[in-house]
Amino acid sequence: MKYYYDLHLHSCLSPCGSEDMTPANLAAMCALAGLDIVALTDHNTTRNCPPFCRAAAGHGLLALAGMELCTQEDIHVVCLFPSPEEAAPFDAYVSDHLSPMQNQPDLFGPQIQMGDEDEVLGEDTRFLAGSTDIPVYQVAQLVAQFGGVAIPAHIDRPSYSLLGVLGLWDPELAFPTAELSHNCPPDFIQRPDLSGLRFITGSDAHYLEQVWGAEHSMDLPERSPQAVLHWLSQQGI
User: Which residues pair with 67 in a beta bridge?
Assistant: First the structure.
């Protein structure tokens, strides 16, 4: 069955995310957009995933817990897990590999952690938008060990992308799927080094108005986290 998805969304816990991107607001906007499967992927943290996933479920959506990891090389990778509880150990691991730099809210924006009623639980003082010390060549296997799937983000962009940093796709990276941006040129995926990959498209929404409608879909035997992660782990367009 065909399900419409957006697996790259940010909340107000991302410093570059709008303060209107509360977990409840974002879940409601995803429902209004006609999406079926969604994932919250804040920068280097999953800590707003519990209220988002519960709010999304209240709107009849399937929500995965995720994170947009920034590697040692400044490459963004979307990491997806079946639930917030299963994502929590990976969150703790990444927390131990963050830069000691502190966030500067006046410069980068606040990082707001919220509860189920969109109440403010606190402000994360770590610099979540910075790079970790995790090498990109370790990410696919590392995320799999924690029960998730890793997908290099917006690979067609010149910055913070695998191709923008490395210049080419190395099969040794072991990523079966890659994400394209919404404005990716149609012939981009014809690059020889991308042969055999599966591609998805994410909105990378940081503002409510950036959440897309039902445009990109996946065919699944059932709407479950396991089916989504299995589909993402299989190569082929």
Answer: 42, 79
Residue count (the chain): 237
For the chain, how many structural domains are there in total?
Answer: 1
191 CB burial (10 A radius; 0-12, 13-18, 19+)? middle
How far is residue 18's CA from residue 205's CA, in Å, rounded to a whole number?
Answer: 10
144 has pLDDT over 70: yes
Domain that holds residue 133: 2-232
Q: How far apart are CA 125 and CA 107, in angstroms?
A: 13
CATH of the domain at 179: 3.20.20.140
* Continuous H helices in 96-224: 105-108, 136-145, 162-166
Residue 126 CA to residue 80 CA, distance in Å, equals 22
Q: What residues does 4 pair with on adjacent strands?
A: 217
DSSP string, 118-138: S-EEEE--B-TTS-BS--HHH
pLDDT at 236 over 90: no
pTM tops 0.85, yes or no: yes
Cα–Cα distances (Å) from 48 to 43, 80, 105, 161, in that order, read: 11, 14, 18, 24
- What SS3 state is found at 228? helix
Q: What is the pLDDT of residues 148-196, one digit of tens each?
A: 999 999 999 999 999 999 999 999 999 999 999 988 999 999 999 999 9
| Euclidean distance between CA atoms 38 and 61, whole angstroms | 7
Residue 213 has pLDDT above 80, yes or no: yes
CA distance linking residue 92 with residue 176, whole number of Å: 25
Closest CA to 109 of 21, 236, 31: 21
